[in-house]
Write a structure and sequence with these properties.
Shape of chain B: globular
Structural class of chain B: alpha+beta
Structural class of chain A: mainly beta
Strand content of chain A: 25-35%
Distance between the termini of chain B: 18 Å
Radius of gyration of chain B: 15 Å
Strand order of the largest sheet of chain B: 1-2-3-4-5-8-7-6
Order of helices and strands of chain A: HEEEEEEEHHEHEEHEEEEEEEEHEEEEEE
Radius of gyration of chain A: 21 Å
Number of strands of chain A: 24
Helix content of chain B: 10-25%
Oligomer: heterodimer
Largest sheet of chain A: 7 strands, mixed
Strand order of the largest sheet of chain A: 18-17-14-15-20-16-19
Chain lengths: ~400, ~150
């Protein structure tokens, strides 16, 4: 039922797009055809996804063999992440008939990639694909095919940063659309040095880390679009304090490039250009390694004020009653703003509505006394802009977040 | 016995510096060599902190008790460190505990009686810590492992 809702939303958007296209074509008469803006809005949904997830936001996209208009596949429930860059697809959801060419290094060796997450690692091949979302297209970009049975098995130096997440149940989604403020997933570090936990070649003697030029790295598809390529907006409605079964919103491409993606009154918070971080001040303490991450399912920070949950809400906070917290975020440009959020009792939330998966008041213990992880709850009820490094917008050059 | 004691001594050293969680400081060179780190040591009257910066830019700190046992490790930087190396025999316990929490999309939080791990971050900015509750010296707070 929940997936049907996602499909319905996609169909509604498609119909809307067709109607708008028809509107553009009509009335043209003999005059020159006006240049139509690219359709830059794609529906997104928070639902249970393919692996019983909680507070994860998903999108449907289409990938094609580079240059082909027929060798294509539409993939639903690709998780949207602003804490990483690059498109990653779990190989098991790919049709065997969809041929994506293996990318190689300059010597012709097939390229593999290990991507590290805090809780595990994902391993697979680097392949070329056209990526289409709404009316936007990134042509012949490098994507990561996770768990690729045609590639070498995961080397120990990849899985040693955390256990493998190479299947849909372990990964929690059919793929990951990384649209952080970075253009490449690794960046100059991997162009200059061969590190374990990044790019590999796998000769018969075993997989070894290798360097990969910026242009050949797995890259943020938004940055590779032909238009609207300076950033994206995640636009999600507010969620009631009791949570929601499903939440529908929009992923809007470009910042200030069309009538529907202007910054308006949004404040711009510049990010550390190397780490993508900004400062949060909580209870008078500055946390300089804080970050916005739509791929985190709660707001995570350290405190002794709230007890950890003991039941279904393990990993989250469980105060006796919901508490409001106000923190200040401060960009590296000095722009500051308060954010007030609610710390609810996760055990009680889950028990009251076991089928709900979207919560704006889900918070939990942190992992670093210098960081606050602004996860998906802070995105509800906001239009959150993520501007890509080095790209100009009406609000200045990225990287920044704005809302 | 105050936290300010941490700043007592910080010197660059050459040679053995780091060890594996739960093991003796004598095994130290293995870690530093395998991760090709550059090491330094800071000593307090309660423990010593062996710090190295990996080629990837990630910094790893290991906390060694006066008895010479590594009771905690912490890391921060653009890449995750080799946790299998850092955790040693505790890595399997870590993996098993993590698998029980999946699918997971928040910070890692393992709080077993023998092993506590907090880990999180995002691409290009990871940090975390781990300690062995049974091996933290009595006059040391586990929160000092960071």
């Amino acid at each position: 039922v929940i997936r049907a809702i996602a499909r319905t939303a996609a169909i509604i958007a498609l119909v809307a797009m067709l109607v708008s296209l028809a509107g553009c074509g009509g009335g043209g008469g003999g005059s020159s055809t006006p240049v139509m803006p690219v359709q830059n809005v794609q529906p997104i949904v928070v639902d249970t996804g393919p692996a019983n997830s909680l507070n994860l936001v998903f999108v449907t996209l289409t990938i094609c063999s580079p240059g082909s208009t027929s060798a294509c596949q539409t993939i639903d429930h690709v998780q949207i992440d602003t804490g990483s860059s690059g498109l990653r697809i779990i190989s098991s959801v790919l049709s065997p008939t969809l041929s994506l060419p293996q990318r190689t290094d300059n010597a012709g060796n097939p390229l593999g990639e290990c991507v590290q997450f805090a809780d595990g690692s994902s391993w697979g091949s680097v392949r070329g694909a056209d990526v289409q979302i709404a009316g936007e297209k990134a042509s012949a970009i490098a994507v990561h095919v996770i768990g690729d049975p045609l590639f070498a098995p995961e080397p120990a130096s990849c899985s040693s940063s955390g256990p493998p997440e190479n299947t849909v149940p372990a990964f929690g989604a059919n793929g990951l659309l990384g649209i952080s403020e970075f253009i490449q997933d690794c960046g100059s570090a991997c162009a200059n040095n061969a590190f374990p936990g990044a790019y590999y070649i796998c000769p018969s003697t075993g997989c070894v880390p290798t360097t990969v030029s910026l242009a050949s790295q797995v890259s943020n598809p938004v940055a590779m679009f032909a238009s609207d390529n300076n950033g994206a907006i995640i636009d999600l409605p507010s969620v009631p304090a009791t949570g929601a079964l499903t939440v529908n919103g929009s992923l809007i491409f470009g910042i200030g490039t069309q009538a529907n993606n202007g910054l308006g009154s949004a404040a711009v918070f510049a990010l550390d250009p190397n780490k993508g971080t900004l400062t949060t001040v909580l209870n008078g303490v500055a946390l300089p390694n804080s970050f916005f991450d739509a791929g985190s399912n709660g707001i995570f920070f350290g405190t002794n004020t709230y007890p950890a949950c003991a039941a279904a809400g393990v990993g989250f906070y469980c105060p006796a009653t919901a508490q409001n917290v106000t923190a200040t975020i401060r960009g590296t440009n000095g722009v500051a703003a308060n954010i007030t959020f609610s710390v609810a009792n996760a055990d009680q939330l889950f028990a009251a509505n076991p089928s709900f998966v979207a919560f704006s008041n889900l918070t939990g213990p942190g992992f670093d006394p210098t960081a606050l992880d602004w996860g998906l709850p802070v995105f509800y009820g906001r239009r959150v802009y993520t501007a890509i490094e080095g790209r100009s917008t009406p609000g200045g050059t990225g990287p920044f977040v704005a809302f | 016995l105050r936290l300010s004691g941490v700043a007592l001594l910080s010197v660059a050293v050459v040679g053995p510096a780091l060890a594996v969680l739960g093991e003796n400081v004598a095994s130290v060179e293995v870690d530093r060599a395998s991760m090709r780190g550059i090491a330094s040591v800071a000593r307090t009257d309660r423990y010593s902190v062996h710090e190295m910066e990996l080629p990837s830019g990630t910094k790893v700190r290991e906390y060694v008790s006066p008895a010479g046992v590594v009771f905690g490790v912490a890391w921060q930087g653009p890449f995750m460190p080799d946790l299998r190396q850092l955790f040693g025999t505790y890595y399997e316990q870590y993996s098993t505990a993590l698998a029980a929490q999946r699918p997971h999309r928040g910070p890692v939080r393992i709080e077993d009686p023998q092993l506590v791990v907090h880990s999180g971050g995002r691409m290009r900015s990871f940090s975390g810590s781990a300690f062995l509750p049974g091996m933290v010296p009595q006059n040391v707070s586990a929160e000092e492992v960071r």
